[in-house]
Structures are given as structure tokens and as C-alpha cells.
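Re: your question from the hallway

Yes, I did run it. Sequences:
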Amino acid sequence: MATYRKKKGSDTWHWCRNCSRWPTSDYEERTSRPSYDLCNECKAKEKENTCRS
Ligand SMILES: [Zn+2]
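Structure:
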């Protein structure tokens, strides 16, 4: 199951650990997919099948 992370003070949710903006500190976490504010880089990785969740 993917984990979604959002850096505090930011609106963008990430779910690829290899995203260049994957938050490693000071973040909120959830396991259900947010319906908006998804990271474009994570989306691109998912499309290319290079997203590591
Ligand atoms: Zn991302």
C-alpha cells in the first residue's frame, strides 16, 4: 500500500520515495490516495512505472 506524504506548510502530496521532493522530515502522512494536490513528478513516475512506493 502506498503512503502519501505532504510536507507541513506545503499542499502537494507525494507517494514515490524516489521523488526529488519526497518529504523525509516534518511531514503529514496518510494511506488513502488524496483526490487533489498530487505531485506532478510522482504522477509522471507512476505513468512511467518508475515510482517506488
Ligand atoms: Zn512527488
